[in-house]
Amino acid sequence: MQAKSIIPFFYVLLQCHFWMMVIASDKLDVVYQWKQLEYEWPSNDTELLFPGYKQEDNLPLGLEITSTRIFVTVPRWRRGVVASLNYFYRNDTRRSPNLIPYPSWEAHQYEAGSVPEIISTFRIRADRCERLWVLDTGFTDILDSPEQQAPPALLIYDLRDDRLLRKFVIPEDQRTPDSLFANIAVEDYSCEDTFAYLADLGGPGLVVYSWKSEKSWLVKHHFFQPDPQAEEFNVSGISFQWTDGLFGMGLASTNDGYSMMYFHPLSSTMEYSVSTKLLRDPERATSLDNFHEFHALGSRGHNGQSSVSFLDPNTGVLFYALASLNAIACWKPRNMFKIEQQDFIYVDNVTMVFPNDLKIDRNGNIWILSDRLPAFMYSRLDPEDYNFRIFMGSAKKAIKGTVCSMNSSSISNNPYDSMIEENNVHPKRLKTVQNSGYVYNSGLISILITVITLFVRTFI
Ligand SMILES: *[C@@H]1O[C@H](CO)[C@@H](O)[C@H](O)[C@H]1NC(C)=O
Ligand SMILES: *[C@@H]1O[C@H](CO)[C@@H](O)[C@H](O)[C@H]1NC(C)=O
Ligand SMILES: *[C@@H]1O[C@H](CO)[C@@H](O)[C@H](O)[C@H]1NC(C)=O
Ligand SMILES: *[C@@H]1O[C@H](CO)[C@@H](O)[C@H](O)[C@H]1NC(C)=O
Ligand SMILES: *[C@@H]1O[C@H](CO)[C@@H](O)[C@H](O)[C@H]1NC(C)=O
Fold first, then answer.
1. Has residue 34 been placed in a domain?
2. CA 407 to ligand 4 center in whole angstroms
3. Distance from the CA of 439 to the center of ligand 4, in angstroms?
4. Radius of gyration of the chain (CA)
5. First-to-last C-alpha distance (Å) of the chain
């Protein structure tokens, strides 16, 4: 009897384990993946125009989604990059679609004595007014022999006809020799009066650009600085030190034409906030006595360095990538920024290694690009393995069962309430994960225990 029942017992366990795995990871799906990037060369002659092309130098980094296209940036980390801004169509049914340079092949071509229209962009943003904002670092061959080929610039395209609407060069007095403009957020409540926030992680500083006045100004603050205690990153066995300042920016509308900007430096575990009402006022934003208008919210804890973040306007939740933890996490701004009030929505030590961009589209879907950047920079990517992935899933579903899905009415700073929360709802608590790696959420463990109990009752 004992021996006979042991087989179904393991069978049930196995089924249960499988089901748990599905639940644990079904919040996001890998929709595209590449071992190495391929371009959609129109002809062999085109290839001749890019003599330096080396496939292994091409690594995807930034992501943007429009109704018909998916944009992917490929910064010029090394010399063999074809084009630093590309797209493919969403109706492309291949799992590893080929990239098409944007807005054209010519816009990326080096000709004797001149630089291309787009030199090297890290991140881009499509606004709700059908414009694509491209933040060009002007910086190439970063890993081997770095060269500032042109000053950093903002290029804005019309997505309806891919025409360049405007190019704005970031003024010299708003940057430093260490500048690297790696991230952009766009506040587009008004198409005529749009603002772009350009994060300079090297400065560090924040350049605010007004579409209407065609001017920009530099905002400096101590909260943009890297934290010397958070400069060490450990990503899948590779350890390195980065001293990067202002990076992640999420804009939460305050329903008065302005936003609360949640931001953090890359080499930091802290999250901060500032109102765009301040940032958009060139006088006040650059004044030295604005210190108290910036707020320190709290920490993500040990190994909690975050790269990109994005605030979902539908759920009001801030989603952010945890670079050293192969994870995507969430936090609802109505809550305090405490570790207990942050949650994981996705963790995977194979597929989510170095989540590098995160966007939420107009249908409420979250999109994430992961690319194993540290291995590309400090070791070597295996060309036979899937190295680059794009994930997609509903933001609403992603926060289900996490602290981020609670109603604002049930959120309070009442210690009794937080005690209840503590004991009931939260799966995959950040605190737990940081101490002991990825654990299944307690709800599923109790289901497992129920199943085992049922089994024991039935078979023994
Ligand atoms: C392009 O080159 C490949 C291999 O180098 C060759 O097989 C193919 O026929 C060429 N195509 C054209 C249109 O010349
Ligand atoms: C895919 O979408 C693009 C743009 O919407 C369109 O031009 C193209 O014809 C479509 N291709 C297919 C195979 O449907
Ligand atoms: C990173 O890993 C190294 C070696 O594996 C270790 O010595 C170091 O303490 C780790 N750093 C952090 C911040 O965890
Ligand atoms: C949140 O509040 C709304 C309206 O008060 C209610 O209908 C909904 O069920 C609540 N959701 C949760 C998860 O409590
Ligand atoms: C995932 O990686 C983290 C950090 O490297 C480690 O602490 C954790 O144990 C790993 N989890 C699994 C399930 O391998």
1. yes
2. 6
3. 28
4. 23
5. 8
Domain that holds residue 289: 28-399
Ligand 3: atom nearest CA of 232 is 13
Residue 337 CB-density burial (10 A; 0-12 exposed, 13-18 middle, 19+ buried):
buried
Does residue 103 register a pLDDT over 90?
Answer: yes
Q: Is residue 432 part of a domain?
A: no
Atom 14 of ligand 5 has which residue's CA nearest to it? 349
Listed in order, strand segments (DSSP E) in 68-143 are: 69-73, 85-89, 100-101, 121-126, 131-136, 139-140
Is 458 domain-assigned? no
Exposed e or buried b per residue across 348-374, where buried means at least 16 C-beta atoms within 10 angstroms of its C-beta: beebbbbbbbbbbbeeebbbbbbbbbb
The ligand 5 atom nearest the CA atom of 236: 5
Domain annotation covers residue 447: no
**Residue ID of nearest Cα to ligand 5 atom 5:** 236
Number of compact structural domains in the chain: 1
Å from CA of 397 to ligand 4 middle: 15
pLDDT digits (tens, 9 = 90+) for 383-406: 999 999 999 999 999 999 999 997
Per cent of the chain over pLDDT 90 is 80
Domain CATH for 116: 2.120.10.30
